[in-house]
């Protein structure tokens, strides 16, 4: 359940649209999602919120000859409160790993 800055429950005001993956991309996407689920990086959800997923093929992806799956969270980010975390100082980070 997502809440706004005042603590009220947010009801989705949008639904992600299919960005038209070709069948080979759709299959690759399904396989990649299964790997992420098995690895514990993501979990299944019954949330009414949804964001579009699609592949990008920028220069770095062309070099490694593999497209990168991305999720566009911009519509969702409009509705949630930003959590501000200061960037720790370099010395503090180094002290933590010693």
UniProtKB/TrEMBL annotation:
Xref: InterPro entries: DNA/RNA_pol_sf, RNA-dir_DNA_polymerase
Superkingdom in the source lineage: Eukaryota
Listed PANTHER family: RNA-DIRECTED DNA POLYMERASE HOMOLOG, TRANSPOSON TY3-I GAG-POL POLYPROTEIN
Record protein name field: Reverse transcriptase
Stretches assigned to coiled coil: none
Species for this entry: Taxus chinensis
